[in-house]
Recover the amino acids of this structure.
């Protein structure tokens, strides 16, 4: 069977004019990783089995490592991390709550969707950062985090829990919109409002759809 979403030849977006200044980029990316860490820690605390706790705790450690790496980048620019992250905290706190869902399964899917989309997005957006910051950020965000353990636990639940697949498919569609709003908020103010950036978001949605397909869910 062929996948529902075929690879497409999309126009590559030039991020030079879209990427924000270094410190706002680092501040938002660092706070996002902190939010991932908090949700993964919550998933560990509410996990129904020890195997999941072990895998999720390791994944939370990766998110925290990314957070601290971005914090060090902020300090390299002689800025205080708290000050740089503070403007993004209120909106991202609301976002973290929104993707947490009503139970453990929705929390796992929300983290899987948001981390997959936003890590991909910020790696692409880093194209517009000056070197060598760009290379360090791309390597940092490119580290494999929660995806394998989340896929394992979600796949097992979908296969064994009646009705879970349909519920998670609906949940996945709901949180994509919130995630795209976060992505759009990261673009430099005054740019990125026209059709020239739509291929970028089309790529994000296509990658999300492939992730959902991999779980047997409809995006």
């Amino acid at each position: 069977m062929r996948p529902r979403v075929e690879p497409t030849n999309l126009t590559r977006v030039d991020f030079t004019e879209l990427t924000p200044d270094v410190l706002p980029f680092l501040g938002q990316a660092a706070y996002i990783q902190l939010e991932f860490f908090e949700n993964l820690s919550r998933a560990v605390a509410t996990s129904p089995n020890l195997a999941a706790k072990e895998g999720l705790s390791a994944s939370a450690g990766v998110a925290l490592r990314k957070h601290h790496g971005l914090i060090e980048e902020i300090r390299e620019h002689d800025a205080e991390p708290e000050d740089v992250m503070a403007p993004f905290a209120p909106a991202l706190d609301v976002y973290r709550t929104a993707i947490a869902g009503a139970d453990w399964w929705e929390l796992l899917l929300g983290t899987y969707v948001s981390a997959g989309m936003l890590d991909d997005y910020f790696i692409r957006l880093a194209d517009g950062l000056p070197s060598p910051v760009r290379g360090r950020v791309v390597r940092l965000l490119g580290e494999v985090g929660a995806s394998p353990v989340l896929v394992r636990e979600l796949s097992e639940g979908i296969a064994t829990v009646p009705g879970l697949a349909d519920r998670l498919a609906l949940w996945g569609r709901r949180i994509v919109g919130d995630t795209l709003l976060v992505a759009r908020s990261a673009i430099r103010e005054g740019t990125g409002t026209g059709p020239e950036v739509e291929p970028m978001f089309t790529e994000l949605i296509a990658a999300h759809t492939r992730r959902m397909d991999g779980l047997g869910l409809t995006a």
About this structure: The chain has a mean pLDDT of 88. The longest helix spans residues 50-76. The chain has one domain: 22-214.
